[in-house]
Amino acid sequence: MIMTTDFPYDWFGTAEKFFSSTELAVLKQIHATAKHLSVPAKTVLLEESKVADRLYLIRKGCLRLFFFNDGKDITFQFFFEGDFVASFDSLYNRQPSLFSLETIEPAELSVIKRDDFYNLIQRMPPLRQAYEEKLIERFRTYQKLFLSHIKNTPQQRYEELLKEHPDIVRRIPQHYIASYLGITPVSLSRIRNRH
């Protein structure tokens, strides 16, 4: 069950490792506008083909983006503490989302509605800049993932994941990691046994 909570304002003290001082100042202003939720694991926050109307900031926990292809659940990105998550294309264009968003672990989230968020970025250039930087970062991540699936073997993709994102290997169930790498869980077990 999703519960509305009041997070202690001192969360921002621990958030310093995720954000610059400018971003923190902006987040403190967003704090009053956002709703704060405690969400159980395996909660779908956005369904594929629905129009996104919220932006999430992960305070605790992890989420994944996934879609269905021929009845198979395909995971293509993970998010952790400090990440902003939404179907940005759907949020911006008010078009159906191409994927679903789900919690993997129990999560503490700050949630801001689309219109409130876009009103804030119109008034606050530092927030607009932070938002644009997050979009560019997301685009880079998708480019790297796309190229990795073309150029690298599953073994190389796994080694790259270990090197660049050890949190994923430690915190995410193996079947989601296998899906993310584009292999079966059995193949992933073989690759892991070689390490």
Strand content: 15-25%
Instruction: Find the CATH superfamily of the domain at 3-123.
Output: Jelly Rolls
What's the arrangement of strands in the largest beta sheet? 1-2-9-4-7
The CATH level-2 architecture of the domain at 3-123 is identified as Sandwich
Please tell me the overall pLDDT. Answer: 85
Biggest sheet features = 5 strands, antiparallel
Description:
Residues 18-138 form the Cyclic nucleotide-binding domain. It comes from Bacteroides fluxus YIT 12057. This protein is an alpha+beta fold and 195 residues long. Residues 7-12 have low confidence and may be disordered. It is built from 9 helices and 9 strands.
Give a quick precis of the structure.
This protein has 195 residues and is of the alpha+beta class. It is 47% helix and 23% strand.
